[in-house]
């Protein structure tokens, strides 16, 4: 592809989201490496982009949300962004469902990174080294990715492609139990958040799985805090992939 073709095609933006950008920085680096292994040429806007606006929208600050959305969209268009790939389900849901409601002109394609990775695996752009020992995994569906946006299969297909045995919790897919982190619960009601996370980890323990895996930085953070005190380990999907590519 020549320079003119690349300009005409537009840029792919990797948008990590606030948690990966400022807290779980190592997770961001893992996903960047995975995208490169998929053969995806992407840009980052770092300090030019702002928060997607999900927290303020959920808190009811509609004018502030619109301000953030307009600022981001202006920055995206100035840099020729045609597609956004994000590992954050909240950002994914906000860009895909909420921005078009607020900005009639919003015309950028949006993918969650599990969709990107699974497409790369299917099209043989990403080669995986399968695990050698049998390991059972149970998958936790993030609320924003699952029940809001209907992305259930891609993360599970990636787990199976790695050679893991997938066992489901009794509450999964559309009926998945929350991690306790969404809707500002973790920030405002930390004790309640921890109790919800404990219940979810107990549901994972019932499956006899070795690992509970999720594809959301917030879910991982909530479940990880609790699982450290239990007999099951919490893992974000990027950690499964990074050693197998």
Would you give an account of this structure?
The protein is of the alpha/beta class. The chain has helices at residues 3-9, 18-23, 25-37, 54-58, 62-78, 89-102, 113-122, 153-161, 185-188, 190-206, 217-227, 237-242; strands at residues 11-14, 42-43, 81-86, 109-112, 136-140, 165-166, 211-214, 233-236. The protein is 49% helix and 13% strand. It has 2 domains: 3-118, 3-Layer(aba) Sandwich (Rossmann fold), CATH 3.40.50.1860; 128-242, Rossmann fold (3-Layer(aba) Sandwich). It is built from 12 helices and 8 strands.
Structure described in brief:
With 245 residues, the chain is α/β, with parallel strands linked by helices. 49% of the residues lie in helices and 13% in strands.
Key terms for this structure?
245 residues, alpha/beta, Rossmann fold, 2 domains, four-stranded parallel sheet, 12 helices, 8 strands, globular, disordered N terminus
Layout: helices, strands, pairs:
Blueprint: H1 3-9, E1 11-14, H2 18-23, H3 25-37, E2 42-43, H4 54-58, H5 62-78, E3 81-86, H6 89-102, E4 109-112, H7 113-122, E5 136-140, H8 153-161, E6 165-166, H9 185-188, H10 190-206, E7 211-214, H11 217-227, E8 233-236, H12 237-242
Helix pairs in contact: 7-8, 10-11
- Going across the major beta sheet, what is the strand order? 2-1-3-4
Task: Report the strand count.
Answer: 8
Helix content: 40-55%
Named CATH topology of the largest domain: Rossmann fold
Q: Could you say which structural class the secondary elements and strand pairing correspond to? A: alpha/beta
Order of helices and strands: HEHHEHHEHEHEHEHHEHEH
Q: Please state the average pLDDT score.
A: 93
**Uncertain stretches of 5 or more adjacent residues:** 1-8
Largest sheet: 4 strands, parallel
CATH architecture of the largest domain: 3-Layer(aba) Sandwich
CATH structural class of the largest domain: Alpha Beta
Provide the number of structural domains: 2
What is the straight-line distance between the termini? Answer: 25 Å
- What proportion of the residues form beta strands (DSSP E)? 5-15%
């Amino acid at each position: 592809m020549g320079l003119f073709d690349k300009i005409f095609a537009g840029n792919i933006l990797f948008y990590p989201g606030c948690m990966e950008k400022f807290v779980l920085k190592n997770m961001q680096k893992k996903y960047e490496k995975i995208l490169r292994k998929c053969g995806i040429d992407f840009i980052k806007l770092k300090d030019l982009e702002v928060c997607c606006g999900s927290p303020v929208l959920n808190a009811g600050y509609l004018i502030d949300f619109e301000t953030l959305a307009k600022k981001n969209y202006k920055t995206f268009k100035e840099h020729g962004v045609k597609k956004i790939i994000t590992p954050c389900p909240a950002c994914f849901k906000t860009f895909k469902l909420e921005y078009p409601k607020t900005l009639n002109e919003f015309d950028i394609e949006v993918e969650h990174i599990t969709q990107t990775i699974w497409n790369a695996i299917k099209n043989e752009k990403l080669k995986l080294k399968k695990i050698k020992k049998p390991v059972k995994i149970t998958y936790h569906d993030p609320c924003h990715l699952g029940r809001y946006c209907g992305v259930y299969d891609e993360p599970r297909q990636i787990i199976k492609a790695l050679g893991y045995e997938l066992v489901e919790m009794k509450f999964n897919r559309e009926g998945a139990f929350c991690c306790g982190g969404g809707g500002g619960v973790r920030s405002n009601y930390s004790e309640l958040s921890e109790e919800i996370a404990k219940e979810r980890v107990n549901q994972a323990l019932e499956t006899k799985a070795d690992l509970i895996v999720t594809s959301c930085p917030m879910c991982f953070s909530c479940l990880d805090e609790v699982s450290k005190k239990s007999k099951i380990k919490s893992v974000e999907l990027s950690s499964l992939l990074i050693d197998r590519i």
